[in-house]
């Protein structure tokens, strides 16, 4: 359970124990810089573990498309892609002279 979820659950529980009815819309989580800074590292690590899966990375390259090709190894090294690269001086001479883009 994430620390924010634990914090919210604890606040709701504390309000449930009170005699008066709690208003969940008044729930206030700790958003001070120090607290958010400390939690940020956990979010980054959780995100890394969620995305660090070979099949997910490969699928993301397949879904990134440029014209009729995608950025997967299979697509970029296909005979059709190699033929398109070889034919680039005829189909797009400006691009062929400029070379690969650097972002």
Set down the secondary structure blueprint:
Layout: H1 3-17, H2 33-51, H3 54-63, E1 65-66, E2 69-70, H4 73-76, H5 79-86, H6 88-91, H7 93-98
Antiparallel strand pairs: 1-2
Question: What keyword list fits this structure?
Answer:
single chain; 103 residues; mainly alpha; 7 helices; 4% strand; elongated
What does this structure look like?
By secondary structure, the chain is mainly alpha-helical. The chain has two domains: 3-52, no CATH class; 56-98, no CATH class. The protein has helices at residues 3-17, 33-51, 54-63, 73-76, 79-86, 88-91, 93-98; strands at residues 65-66, 69-70. It has a two-stranded antiparallel sheet with strand order 1-2.
Strand order of the largest sheet: 1-2
Mean pLDDT: 82
Q: Strand content of the residues, in percent?
A: under 5%
Structural class: mainly alpha
Summarize the structure.
With 103 residues, the chain is mainly alpha-helical. It has helices at 3-17, 33-51, 54-63, 73-76, 79-86, 88-91, 93-98, and strands spanning 65-66, 69-70. It has 2 domains: 3-52, no CATH class; 56-98, no CATH class.
């Amino acid at each position: 359970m994430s620390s924010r979820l634990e914090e919210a659950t604890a606040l709701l529980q504390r309000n449930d124990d009170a005699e008066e009815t709690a208003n969940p819309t008044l729930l206030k989580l700790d958003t001070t810089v120090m607290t958010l800074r400390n939690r940020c590292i956990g979010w980054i690590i959780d995100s890394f573990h969620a995305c660090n899966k070979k099949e997910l990375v490969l699928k993301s390259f397949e879904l990134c498309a440029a014209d009729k090709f995608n950025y997967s190894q299979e697509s970029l090294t296909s005979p059709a892609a190699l033929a398109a690269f070889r034919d680039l001086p005829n189909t797009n001479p400006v691009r062929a002279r400029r070379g690969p883009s650097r972002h």
